[in-house]
Amino acid sequence: EDKVVQSPLSLVVHEGDTVTLNCSYEVTNFRSLLWYKQEKKAPTFLFMLTSSGIEKKSGRLSSILDKKELFSILNITATQTGDSAVYLCAVLDNAGNMLTFGGGTRLMVKP
Amino acid sequence: DSGVTQTPKHLITATGQRVTLRCSPRSGDLSVYWYQQSLDQGLQFLIQYYNGEERAKGNILERFSAQQFPDLHSELNLSSLELGDSALYFCASSVAGGLAGTDTQYFGPGTRLTVL
């Protein structure tokens, strides 16, 4: 059975701190790994990673994938209170149809 | 705003009842996905439709069914509801649903179902 595990479960930091969120996976047919941010309702798309070692960056957020060790990290630098959310990691199967989600990391950024 | 719309936002019903959740994908997207998010199970894939046809099935109960109509909107039907069906139900859409390599799924705001 495909499995996606995220750590830590939750994290409390202060504004300006840098955080690293982890995602490891065991899937039979891997195509891509995706990161989503979920605030109050719908997950919003952050990154899709398909190739190992290539960093994707968007402002203060960046992410990288290691397909040999089967994990990905999401980094957030200079955190702000608006970064408070649950961050979800998901793996897309080879057919490109199904996302298997991890349990999420709940990030709280205090002023 | 992802462009995916879902109705209703909230639904409260009793055990044993049947409900229908509705989803309209982003303009131009042919694929619709349904997910269930509960506190104990996290976000779980239920089913995918592409251009009116079922494409992939995940952990969907037999009491649940879905369809996608010619105008590409989709409905998720939940019947013989149980307390454990209380959850957030999300719809997502993508351009091609696997055919286009790595197209992204964009999520709607969800429908919160409470079964009493």
Task: Describe this structure in a few short sentences.
The complex is a heterodimer of chains A (111) and B (116). Chain A has no helices and 11 strands.
Describe the fold and architecture.
The complex is a heterodimer of chains A (111) and B (116). Chain A has 111 residues and is mostly beta strands. In chain A, 0% of the residues lie in helices and 60% in strands. Chain A is built from no helices and eleven strands. Chain A has strands at 3-7, 10-14, 19-26, 30-38, 43-49, 56-58, 61-66, 71-76, 85-93, 99-101, 105-110. In chain A, strands 2, 4, 5, 9, 10 and 11 form a six-stranded mixed sheet that branches. Chain A has a five-stranded antiparallel sheet with strand order 1-3-8-7-6, with no helix packed on it. Chain B is mostly beta strands. Helices cover 0% and strands 52% of the residues of chain B. Chain B contains no helices and eleven strands. Chain B has strands at 5-7, 10-13, 19-24, 31-38, 42-50, 53-57, 64-68, 74-78, 87-94, 106-107, 111-115. In chain B, the strands form two sheets. In chain B, strands 2, 4, 5, 6, 9, 10 and 11 form a seven-stranded mixed sheet that branches. In chain B, strands 1-3-8-7 form a four-stranded antiparallel sheet, with no helix packed on it. The termini of chain B are far apart. In chain B, 40% of the residues are buried. The model of chain B has no long low-confidence stretch (mean pLDDT 91). Classes of the chains: A mainly beta (111), B mainly beta (116). Chains A and B meet through strand 4, strand 5, strand 9 and strand 10 of A and strand 5 and strand 10 of B.
Shape of chain B: globular
Task: Provide the succession of SSEs of chain B.
Answer: EEEEEEEEEEE
- Overall average pLDDT of chain A: 92
The tally of beta strands of chain B, per DSSP, is 11
Largest sheet of chain B: 7 strands, mixed
Instruction: Write down the Rg of chain A.
Output: 13 Å
Spatial extent as radius of gyration of chain B: 13 Å
What structural class do you assign from the helix and strand content of chain A?
A: mainly beta
Level of helix content of chain B? under 10%
Biggest sheet details of chain A: 6 strands, mixed
Mean of residue pLDDT values of chain B = 91
Strand portion of chain A: over 45%
Assembly category = heterodimer
How many beta strands in the DSSP annotation of chain A?
A: 11
Outline the low-pLDDT stretches of chain B. none
